[in-house]
Amino acid sequence: MVGPMNDRLTKSDWIGHGLRTLAAHGPSALKIGAMAAELHVSRGSFYWHFRDIADFRSRLLESWKDWATQRVIRELEADHDEPDRLKSLLSRAFSGEPRDDLSIRSLDKALRAWAIDDDKVAAVVASVDADRMAFISKLLEESGVESQKAAHRAAFLYWAYLGQPIVIKSGLLSSTAAAIDDISDLFRK
């Protein structure tokens, strides 16, 4: 949290606050005056970094795409050998996420709701979906699954990921390591 008005906010501070605001309250809460007040700064701080609210929203979408998709892909590619990448991704997706003020799932939910009424947002969400499914498909192909089957299996796994948060019973919101191993084996060759 930013302190007195003499503390300078960075563009990243504004984007981070915007992402948290979006996740908690939806796109209608992305108002310059309200966000500036929450950050204890003047509106001028916002305009130092962004031309207008449209510029801010565009950069917010870019940041979400990078943080919730490209960063995850980079981490998996850097930290794991080929056979472990699929299992690691499934573990991230289905073993439950820390419940903090900003999670990939909470942002995904907010962005998908926003996309219903905004074609630009819908295009970004569709791009993220395509990137995620392509990466899952790549992981499946690396584990020996034929290309066409990998695409179908990737879509199925992604649909399961998207649908998991709507499950009412909290005990079904995450899977054990043994269950993830079993699921991972199911989708290979």
UniProtKB/TrEMBL annotation:
Pfam families: TetR_N. SUPFAM superfamilies: Homeodomain-like. The keyword Magnesium does not apply. It comes from Sphingomonas oleivorans. This is TetR family transcriptional regulator. Keywords: DNA-binding. Transmembrane segments: none annotated. Residues 19-55 form the HTH tetR-type domain. The lineage of its organism: Bacteria, Pseudomonadati, Pseudomonadota, Alphaproteobacteria, Sphingomonadales. One of its GO terms (molecular function) is DNA binding.
